[in-house]
Design goal:
The protein is an alpha+beta fold. The chain is built from 5 helices and 7 strands.
């Protein structure tokens, strides 16, 4: 499993559009400046939607290229150097926006910390550095807008994790996994996350588990 987003350019585009949105409103018209928005049908909305889709396509292409390169290396290392073709390849977005139809209407769905769980759509739900991860198939539950959680989710902020745990805690909680065990990744310690098993149990009506994966190597970078 690997992950890549839009590599900062998505963030840069978002910040520019947020700035534009704020400039279109008087402060008295909004409860807070951060609630500034675009109105569909305006040039500003069209420009934002175009850039957003570009950034999401760019992120997906990143992952596609990275996986192709990874498989090329695996072909050299395993299977007597014979081409290795995986049974299933899953490339899914999280933290993204999609234009979909729900309850007979076209709506913009923002999945923050979530993935698409449409009927028979494959998805990835990763755990923390020391936990399991899951490949799933969506059940298409309409009440969830065909969505499920992207992962265990934090129960502790990055700053709180750094204050609460030590390097020894990290080594203990990632025992059996080859990964960085220094203070630089202390904010990613398994103890800062919810139990992935509990999360999967709580969303069994949203997804079907296709494969359960326990990592032996975790590369952060």
């Amino acid at each position: 499993m690997l992950h890549s987003g839009s590599r900062n350019i998505g963030k840069e585009l978002a910040e520019r559009h947020i700035s534009t949105a704020k400039s279109l409103w008087r402060l008295s018209e909004l409860p807070a400046p951060d609630l500034a928005y675009f109105i569909q049908g305006t040039p500003e909305f069209a420009a934002y939607w175009k850039d957003l889709k570009w950034a999401q396509t760019y992120a997906m292409k990143n992952r596609e290229i990275m996986m192709a390169r990874l498989l090329k290396v695996f072909n050299k290392m395993f299977n007597h150097r014979q081409p290795f073709k995986p049974e299933l390849q899953v490339n899914c977005h999280h933290n993204y926006v999609a234009l979909e139809e729900h309850y007979g209407e076209k709506v913009f769905v923002t999945r923050k910390g979530a993935i698409n769980a449409d009927k028979d759509a494959y998805g990835i739900i990763p755990g923390s550095m020391g936990a399991k991860s899951f490949i799933v198939k969506g059940r298409g539950l309409a009440e969830s807008f065909n969505s499920c959680s992207h992962g265990a989710g934090r129960k502790m902020s990055r700053g709180a994790a750094k204050r609460a745990f030590t390097k020894d805690d990290l080594a203990r909680q990632t025992s059996g996994v080859e990964c960085r065990k220094d203070v630089g990744v202390l904010d990613e310690i398994p103890g800062a996350y919810k139990s992935i098993e509990a999360v999967m149990k709580n969303q069994k009506d949203l997804v079907e588990i296709v494969a359960e994966i326990k990592q032996v190597v975790c590369v952060k970078g």
